[in-house]
Every structure is written in structure tokens, then in C-alpha cells.
From TrEMBL:
NCBIfam families: hemL, PRK00062.1. InterPro entries: 4pyrrol_synth_GluAld_NH2Trfase, Aminotrans_3, Aminotrans_3_PPA_site, PyrdxlP-dep_Trfase, PyrdxlP-dep_Trfase_major, PyrdxlP-dep_Trfase_small. This is Glutamate-1-semialdehyde 2,1-aminomutase. The gene is hemL. The modification N6-(pyridoxal phosphate)lysine is found at residue 267. PANTHER family: GLUTAMATE-1-SEMIALDEHYDE 2,1-AMINOMUTASE, GLUTAMATE-1-SEMIALDEHYDE 2,1-AMINOMUTASE 1, CHLOROPLASTIC-RELATED. Keywords: Cytoplasm, Isomerase, Porphyrin biosynthesis, Pyridoxal phosphate. Pathway: Porphyrin-containing compound metabolism; protoporphyrin-IX biosynthesis; 5-aminolevulinate from L-glutamyl-tRNA(Glu): step 2/2. It comes from the Bacteria. Belongs to the class-III pyridoxal-phosphate-dependent aminotransferase family. HemL subfamily. It is found in: Cytoplasm. It catalyses: (S)-4-amino-5-oxopentanoate = 5-aminolevulinate.
Length: 428
């Protein structure tokens, strides 16, 4: 494939934007080479500035669950834009989307909309601290909850890809309040709770992790966390930025039948526009300003274009719950295909998958936490990534990211992808 124009655009971008990108993982540092520049996208496909067509397995890192430029979403945004793009004054649509989200997600009474997943998680933790009167939080190594200070402690995703899971700029004062646990290790969490009795406001986690590849909670892990939280008087925060409205209509809470105390959303909830949200039962949410003392605000929060995209996306999923089944079936099909061709090629691998989140790790050990994920052979991943790109398949440009399937993918696209993996794996 030719990437001449992308390359020129990247060179120009680097003069004016740090690293040429507005979010680090886009720069391809983890896999080497240069990023492609997207010109447009439709359904399951990306079209780059050089005229290449690629099958997209990142779906804007999750949001485009129904495919790119999904007509009802685009129509809703265009219609809204003609009536003004921001007011900073309430609109009816904010209540409509809040009402719909509350009806879809179990165990929440109220929801507050923000502009990103980072804001959602940052605000959720502040609310948990304000509600409990405690300062510390427990997070898991390899989980990513956005780039706010408290979370850049052994963070996953781009932070670990770029070798800065603990970013300079985060003060010791902030870092000391974030305690680190191993994913899928309840006894480790219990030790931390015991050693910091009465000081922990919340445990935050991705109920299915997607920022160290896809990591599935082992049986009893989420249940065990719920129990520990109840015993120690700690709030359980599910960061459902990836899993919300993707793994099920009601997200991981519904899928695993576990009640979280606060839930964070992003990605799908905005239908591809910048939206995040956090939600909880009244008892907790009523602590938020203007009802309560915990402050949180946003000039563009509840923005009409963003709400139009989000409301349309959630309505589509609510009205067509068969989408979740279809995504499950498509991803299971891809999973089976990958197993076959990787076995045929005698490649060492482990695949983790839940619903439409899937990742291939080039190790034969089980991948259950950050440590085991980091054992994957990154050189093999790089070759795999570039091989697939050459074949016309766009995978996440880092081994520490989950792939996200979208429902616009056809079985022909999946077959094409499986054949591409067969070709690429043969040369690994
Ligand atoms: N939480 C999780 C689980 C995420 O995957 C992400 C982003 N990948 C975030 C929070 C942060 O969201 P945003 O990039 O919208 O700030």
C-alpha cells in the first residue's frame, strides 16, 4: 500500500502538534512506522488520504459500535447543528438521554454528562471521596481510567505503551493516595484494604479490562470485590467507558449481575462525539453540585450535538438489542477463525475475548493481568500489526489495546480478516 500523502501530512503535523498527534497512541510509536491519515470512514471501513481502504477494528477505540457515519446518528447531528451548537443553558434533550441511559443501565438513578471518559472517571473519584470522606483509592495495574493525575499510576493503554505508566507531572502528594493492586487478585486487594483500614474511598476498575489487551475478570473476582467493598465500607466504581453499552445494553453490571456504586461511561454513549458520563443511585448522586457539596461542572457538558449523537446511538441500541447478539456472534466467528489460522501457522498465542472485545497476545501463558499481558512478544506484535495493515486491516497500533468490533462488519469482512491473518501469521 502507498502511504505517501499520509506521510507528508504526518511530517507537517509534527511541526505544530507534539508528536504530530492529539493522543499519543495514534503516533504508531509502539509498532514503529508512521500513522495513516483518515480521510473518511463509512460502515466498517476507513478510507485514508492515499486512497487505501481498510477494515477497521478500533471503531474510534470503541464508540462506533454500529459502524462509521451511521445514518441516524449523522442525521441527528446535522439537524441539531442547524439550530445552534452550544448554549450553556439546559435543553430538553439532556433529560431525554439521561432518562434513556437510566432505563438501560441497572442500579443507577441519576447520571451527569461530561465531555470524555477521563472527566467521567476523575469526577467519579471526587464524588466517591466527597461521599465517603476518605482520600485513598485502589486501582489495578494496567487499567486505564483516563489521563487525570490520580490514575497515571501504573496506567495501561497509551501510558504503558509509551513507557510512562507513572507520568512525570503527577505530584507525590497525589500519587500517595492511589494504591495499586493486581487485576484478578482478590487477596492483594484484601491486603491493601486491611493495611489502609478506614482510609479508602473507592476501588475503581475496568470490569473487563481493555487497556492491557482484553483481560477478562476471573470467576468470582468481581463478586469478591463487591463483597470486600461492602465489608470495608468502600465504594465500587466500574469504569464502563469501554464496556458500557457494548458488552450488553446495561454493560458489565448487567452481564455479570454485579452492582457497582458508581459507573463511568464514555465512547458508545456519545455515538462518536465527545461525551462521558458518571452515574449512581440517588444517595450518592445527590452529593453532587448544585444539590450537594461535591463540585463538578462543564461549559460544553450536555452539548446539543453530542447529546443528539448519544441519544440516537443509545436509542438505536435500546430499540435493537439484537445488535449485542450479532456482535457476539461475529466476534466469536472471528475468534474461531483466528484460532484455526494461528494454529495452522504454529504461532505461539493466547486470545482473550468477551463479547465484541478481543485481543491476540503472542505468548502461550494465560493473560490475566498486566504482568502476563506484558510478557507477550512485542516484536511479533509489531510484525503482525504491519502485516495486517498491508493486507488492508487496521488493528489497534499497540499490543496493550483491545480490538473493538462494530456491527457494520460483514462475514465477508471477517473472512477477509481471517485470511489476512493466515497470510501474515505464516510469515511471523
Ligand atoms: N476509561 C477507560 C476504560 C478507557 O478505555 C478510556 C479511554 N480509552 C478512558 C477511561 C478515558 O476516556 P477518554 O479517552 O475519553 O478521556
Amino acid at each position: 500500500m502507498i502511504y505517501k500523502r499520509s506521510s507528508a501530512l504526518f511530517a507537517e503535523a509534527q511541526k505544530y502538534i507534539p508528536g504530530g498527534v492529539n493522543s499519543p497512541v495514534r503516533a504508531f510509536n509502539a509498532v514503529g512506522g508512521e500513522p495513516i491519515y483518515v480521510k473518511e470512514a463509512k460502515g466498517a471501513y476507513l478510507y485514508d488520504e492515499d486512497g487505501n481502504k481498510l477494515i477497521d477494528y478500533i471503531a474510534s477505540w470503541g464508540p462506533m459500535i454500529l459502524g462509521h457515519a451511521h445514518k441516524p446518528v449523522v442525521d441527528a447531528v446535522v439537524a441539531k447543528a442547524q439550530k445552534g451548537t452550544s448554549f450553556g443553558i439546559p435543553t430538553e434533550m439532556e433529560t431525554e438521554i439521561a432518562k434513556l441511559a437510566v432505563s438501560m443501565v441497572p442500579n443507577i438513578d441519576k447520571i451527569r454528562f461530561v465531555n470524555s471518559g477521563t472527566e467521567a472517571c476523575m469526577s467519579a473519584v471526587r464524588l466517591a471521596r466527597g461521599y465517603t470522606g476518605k482520600d485513598k483509592i485502589i486501582k489495578f495495574a494496567g487499567c486505564y481510567h483516563g489521563h487525570s493525575d490520580s490514575f497515571l499510576i501504573q496506567a495501561g493503554s497509551g501510558a504503558v505503551t509509551f513507557g510512562s505508566p507513572n507520568s512525570p507531572g503527577v505530584t507525590q502528594g497525589t500519587a500517595k493516595d492511589t494504591l495499586l493492586a493486581r487485576y484478578n487478585d482478590l487477596s492483594n486487594v484484601k491486603e491493601l484494604l486491611e493495611a489502609n483500614k478506614g482510609e479508602i474511598a473507592a476501588i475503581i476498575l475496568e470490569p473487563v479490562a481493555g487497556n492491557m489487551g482484553c483481560i477478562i475478570p476471573e470467576s468470582g473476582f468481581l463478586e469478591g470485590l463487591r463483597e470486600l467493598c461492602d465489608v470495608y465500607g468502600v465504594l465500587l466504581i466500574f469504569d464502563e467507558v469501554m464496556t458500557g453499552f457494548r458488552l450488553a445494553r446495561g454493560g458489565a453490571q448487567e452481564l455479570f449481575n454485579i452492582k457497582a456504586d458508581i459507573v463511568c461511561f464514555g465512547k458508545v454513549i456519545g455515538g462518536g462525539l465527545p461525551v462521558g458520563a458518571f452515574a449512581a443511585r440517588n444517595e450518592i448522586m445527590n452529593h453532587l453540585a448544585p444539590l450537594g457539596p461535591v463540585y463538578q461542572a462543564g461549559t460544553l457538558s450536555g452539548n446539543p450535538l453530542a447529546m443528539a449523537a448519544g441519544l440516537t446511538m443509545l436509542s438505536e441500541l435500546n430499540d435493537h438489542p439484537e445488535v449485542f447478539k450479532s456482535l457476539e456472534e461475529k466476534t466469536a466467528y472471528l475468534h474461531r477463525g483466528l484460532i484455526k489460522v494461528l494454529n495452522d501457522a504454529e504461532v505461539t498465542y493466547t486470545i482473550n475475548r468477551l463479547g465484541s472485545m478481543i485481543s491476540v497476545h503472542f505468548t502461550d501463558d494465560k493473560v490475566v493481568d498486566f504482568e502476563s499481558s506484558a510478557k507477550g512478544n512485542n516484536d511479533t506484535f509489531k510484525k503482525f500489526f504491519h502485516g495486517m495493515l498491508t493486507e488492508g486491516v487496521y488493528l489497534p497500533p499497540s499490543a496493550f489495546e483491545s480490538w473493538f468490533l462494530n456491527d457494520a462488519l460483514s462475514y465477508d469482512d471477517l473472512d477477509f480478516t481471517i485470511n489476512a491473518v493466515a497470510k501474515v501469521a505464516g510469515a511471523l
